[in-house]
Amino acid sequence: HQTIRPPPEQERQPSRSSKMPLTESSRKALLHLKAIRPYDGWTIEMHGTTKEIRVVRRGIPLTDNYFNDIHYDAISDSVVGILVKGPPTKAQVLVDEHGKPIGRTPAIIHVTTWNPNAPYSRNNQKSRASNQAGVSTTSSATPTATGGVQSQFSQEQNQLLLKYAGFAIAFAVAVKALMNAVFALYIILLPILYLYALSTAPHEDSFDAKKELKRVMRGHHLPEDHPDKPKGWFSETL
Prior knowledge:
Elements: H1 8-11, H2 24-36, E1 42-46, E2 53-57, E3 60-61, E4 69-73, E5 78-84, E6 89-95, E7 108-111, H3 125-133, E8 135-137, H4 155-200, H5 209-217, H6 232-237
Parallel strand pairs: 1-8
Antiparallel strand pairs: 1-2, 2-3, 4-5, 5-6, 6-7
């Protein structure tokens, strides 16, 4: 029987139990991302057995390419991916100071705060466990940092939703108050208008039917250029 061996590329990929620990720089960068955007599901993804890594947000990589390391640059207050170790050290900005991903348009900067000789984070069992909880490989692709259920909205999106909800509630309250004011004004003005109409209406005895008929016959209600309006004294007195 012929033994089927996997391709060399698959042989080099680590299993889930042999995840490589994070560097101290990438561990701090991951902690920074989770601090400013705790509901975005940040993880660090490693490429096989190599040390190249990239940032993943909600199961989606921020970039197509991998980096030598992930670093939080305190000068620019952003998380970057190390491209060239240098000196000078060149890095691509991945997440800005507000925790917003830059996107796939590269922004290259020079970084002076990254230490290429920083050790891996192997201080104790607790730190290794926390690192492995925040790391995924290309073969496993963990969608969230803790494996639990994460919110589908970021903190800013939740605040925006709350803001719109507050505007909607305020608008509804304002419309209701306006309708109540209009109804109250209608209740108050209706009897006043009725009393005013009764007080200003002429009495029935003041109406002279014969006199009003003569006015109509003489064309007092017609304009001067109307063809049916009587002309002259004879036509008016007829």
